[in-house]
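If it is no trouble, can you show me the amino acids of a protein and the tokens describing how it folds?
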Amino acid sequence: MLKIFYGENRKNAEIVIKRFLGQDYEVFDGEKISADDLPTIFQGTSLFESGARRILVKNLSDNAEAWAKVPDYQDTEHKVAIWEMKLDARLSGTKILKTAGIEMEEFKKPTAKPLFGLLNLALRDSRAAISELEMRESDQDPYMLVGLFVSDALKNLQASGGKKRDREVLQALARLDQRMKTTSIEPWVLVKGFLLEIGEL
């Protein structure tokens, strides 16, 4: 079984792909494989498991030669997910896949709906703020949310006349912004850490 997942909403795509493949699966980088590797991936057997394999292939459409050959393996007995951030409809392989009726699921970029009041909720109850964020995380952009935090923190600072806690929140926001720009840690992990931090101020 072959399915293609594509689109800019990586978080939702990962959830659906894991639901399709399960927890344990092989991963191949599509940019590093050749068309000659495809029979091994789509038809080969595993040394460690009997029966059907579960396979994730990432960014295969960046490899034009291999991508054009994918339709030849649409009847694979293995469970194969192909994940593409962007899918170029002009590529011959893409056109053939669509014509062949292979299941393709798109995950569109989330439309961020401002999560107002989250900063002030975290100042009262950081756990409640994190729970609220996790319910809405899939339609948020972490960088836009931090911008909203800055706006709310500045309003709080002005309203309080510059109280120590409000200054410390702005300092914590500056550290968060720096970490988001300079580390490879998942942005949502950093945002949730920030919410916990300000809850203890």
